[in-house]
Amino acid sequence: MAPSALNHTFKTVCVADASGQIGQSIVRKLLRRGYNVHAAVTSTTTLSEYWRFEKEKRLKVFRYDPFDYQTIVAAMRGCSGLFYSFEPPHDHPIYDEYMVDTEMRAAHNVLEACAQTETMERVVYTSSVTAVIWNWKDNRRSSLTQINERNWSDPNLCRKFNLWYALSKTLAEKTAWALAMDREVNMVSINSGLLLTSKTTEMAVINSPYSDGAAKMCEDGLFVAVDVEFLADSHICVYEDPSSYGRYLCFDRVISRPDDAVGVATQILTTSHPPYPPPINSYDSGENTEIRTEIDGRKLANLMIDYNRDAGFGDWQFYYE
Questions:
Q1: What is the per-residue pLDDT across 102-146, written as a single tens digit (0 to 9) for each?
Q2: Entry pTM
Q3: Of 38, 138, 152, 214, which is least packed with CB atoms within 10 Å of its CB?
Q4: Distance in angstroms (rounded) separating the CA atoms of residues 289 and 287
Q5: CB 49 within 8 A of CB 90
Q6: Does domain 12-136+147-192+230-251+295-306 have CATH number 3.40.50.720?
Q7: How, if at all, do strands 224-227 and 140-141 pair?
Q8: Each residue of 229-246: pLDDT tens digit?
Q9: If 0-12 CB within 10 Å is exposed, 13-18 middle and 19+ buried, where does residue 304 land?
Q10: 187-192 and 246-250: which strand pairing?
Q11: Extents of the domains making up the chain
């Protein structure tokens, strides 16, 4: 059963993991829109920060572990919706072959708990554009059409070039969709571009696991990014709109000029060790012509036309530090 687009005030929803930038932005916006929120967090530091705000009666904070089924069930109890995003474990924050299995297991556990939660109406699953774009054959895209939400990254290509972040996001999302369909869980996914915030630095972009293979993404007009506030709005929009379905590509910036692309991609290539897919062309910095965008985000754009991001009750604030 899809949630009502209008009667969300005082509904109870869960945000897991609410420790990261995405989760915290979603929590803040949900509280402003009148929801009761279960903030499920893995970070002890974030847990203590949230507890400072529990005077807000519509917020409950839960210690959560995606590998401890009982903590997942407890956080979701009584909730009609879940906003799920995976945060790497603090003792292993690097995306590698081990992380692929870790994120897949987390996705399975969370979706299984959703299937067991009788009050659950809809799940919004945070995935990545990298689960969509890595589908070349012989180092070239196999289709001349724009990439959209119907595309999936090729796991074999991801393994070949050690694109562990893309592989992790691809297989974890596939795991979630398989379980959702088998257990009749109403799920939609947001496939996010590179996450940007007001505090994002150039070095943070370079070091982000999303940026693995950036030179190839830049060349083919597929290197996209999204502001965290727009990303959070997108999550809430697809949850509230009963017509939403399937996957949504979410980005509000495309790196589409060679100077921008070279500036990012060259630095990433010089600091990267794995043999990421190389660009086929080299750009003349004197000809800063625009690179054609080859990714289609119209499905989400059309859905958000009537979304009122300013609807709210109060000015509850919590910012990620």
A1: 999 999 999 999 999 999 999 999 999 999 999 876 445 555 578
A2: 0.85
A3: 138
A4: 6
A5: no
A6: yes
A7: unpaired
A8: 999 999 999 999 999 999
A9: middle
A10: parallel
A11: 12-136+147-192+230-251+295-306
